[in-house]
Write a structure and sequence with these properties.
Helix content is about 80%, strand content about 5%. It is an all-alpha fold. The longest helix is centred in the middle third of the chain and has 34 residues, at about 110-145. The N and C termini lie far apart (about 35 Å).
């Protein structure tokens, strides 16, 4: 569990550095890499049990992906951020078919492989809906605040960011975990140890994402030209 926390901190520190070197390329690369690997290394496949909860590195990776999307929306445009989201969703779906056919050709097709494939689909659906709803909220916020970079509203802007990141991440968790529960016929509890741990991990990572944005905006500025 301590190692998981250290990995989370290192991941967001790396994001700060990569954004400072080459912002746009870094955001695109990290978005796709984090979203795909969040589906491969999750709390179902590689659980980390702690005080009755089941954590996974996916909560860090997925939240970092959402952070790159909202960074792109704020520092560039919502349209560019949405294009990046769609590209990532396509990459998730392609990855799901590659894994399905690779396992099928290697050891045959069984229920576990089908459930794993459906996990990718639930994740893609959760990402689409989560980011879509996040942008509805974000556009409404920007419409009410004409100058999103005004010093006065900096704290409000940070709160807006935290809500955006948390909203998209939590919607994804709900769709992913409940979808998998239905697919495996294990829908017995509304709140499972995996789901609760995912909420906690994503909230913690959201705060790290907020801190990373502040550092890039105030101190180690992101290189928007690259």
């Amino acid at each position: 569990m301590i190692l998981l926390i250290i990995i989370a901190i290192i991941s967001f520190l790396a994001t700060i550095i990569f954004r400072h070197i080459s912002d746009s390329k870094a955001l695109i690369s990290m978005a796709i890499g984090c979203a795909i690997n969040a589906n491969i290394y999750n709390s179902n496949n590689m659980p980390i049990s702690w005080h009755g909860l089941v954590f996974g590195i996916d909560s860090i990776l997925y939240t970092l992906f959402i952070c790159t999307i909202i960074y792109k929306a704020i520092d560039y445009t919502v349209e560019e951020a949405w294009d990046m989201t769609i590209s990532t969703i396509i990459a998730i779906i392609i990855s799901s078919f590659i894994e399905l056919f690779a396992n099928w050709s290697y050891q045959g097709l069984d229920q576990a492989e089908i459930v794993r494939f459906l996990g990718y689909i639930f994740s893609a659906l959760g990402t689409y809906l989560g980011v879509k709803i996040m942008f509805i909220y974000y556009r409404a916020y920007v419409k009410r605040h004409s100058s999103k970079y005004s010093p006065h509203g900096f704290l409000k802007n940070l709160i807006c960011m935290l809500i955006c990141i948390s909203l998209a991440s939590l919607i994804n968790s709900l769709i992913y975990f409940y979808g998998n529960s239905i697919a495996t016929f294990k829908f017995t509890h509304f709140i499972t140890p995996n789901l609760l741990a995912s909420f906690i991990g994503k909230l913690f990572s959201s705060l790290l994402g907020l801190a990373a944005y502040i550092i890039n905006a105030k101190y180690l500025k992101a290189n928007y030209k690259n």
